[in-house]
Design brief:
mainly beta, 4-stranded antiparallel sheet, 48% strand, rod-shaped
Length: 196
């Protein structure tokens, strides 16, 4: 309790007031939370559409996943935000997604620890396959593929350079186009011949 006495210098009259100050015990950070580790960055194909987040298990504190940034128009969804190993879905827009793994002190006495992981979604290549038929029976038909990277031809095709190939019989032919990031898609074309 603290007192103060106020005296009027002209009249020498005085009065005393008092106030009581109460101490409040504030919590101190005794044991810091576990340092967050969100795991290694990932690079996957757009066609996969999901990934697994793998943060470390905190020995002190509780963990929570959150979306830090994502591409415009994306709507990623973390299945179980409080689990260190959680699936993230709706990774359908190509680009970089950044997720934060935050370990916090439930009592609020210690500062949180945050780490980030980047998941890069590589676009699916746009593959096309055309032919210059129909030709006369016995003639060679040229196939032309676009969209790669690399081209892997299906059965019955004589591969040429890059997206060029040839066939000599009617039928449905395929090519698998693979991008530099390892993402692939397949295109088809139907070859027909004119009767003699």
């Amino acid at each position: 309790t603290y007192n103060v006495t106020v005296t009027n210098s002209a009249t020498t009259c005085s009065n005393t007031a008092s106030a009581t100050v109460t101490s409040i015990s504030c919590g101190a950070c005794v044991t810091p939370v576990t340092t967050a580790n969100a795991g290694s960055d990932q690079s996957i194909c757009q066609s996969v559409g999901s990934a697994t987040l793998s943060g470390n298990v905190p020995s002190v504190g509780t963990g929570l996943w959150s979306i830090f940034t994502q591409p415009t128009g994306a709507a990623a969804s973390i299945t179980t935000p409080t689990a260190n190993n959680s699936t993230v879905t709706n990774l359908t827009v190509a680009g970089d997604y950044i997720f934060a793994w935050t370990i916090s002190d439930p009592a609020g006495n210690c500062p949180p620890s945050v780490d980030y992981i980047k998941i890069t979604i590589n676009p699916t290549p746009t593959a096309t396959l055309t032919n210059d038929g129909p030709q006369c029976v016995g003639s060679t038909v040229n196939l032309t593929a676009t969209g790669g990277g690399t081209y892997t031809w299906g059965a019955g095709v004589t591969a040429g350079v890059g997206g060029a190939a040839t066939v000599t019989t009617a039928g449905t032919y395929t090519v698998t186009v693979t991008s530099a990031a390892g993402c692939s898609t397949t295109a088809t074309t139907i070859v027909s011949y004119n009767a003699l």
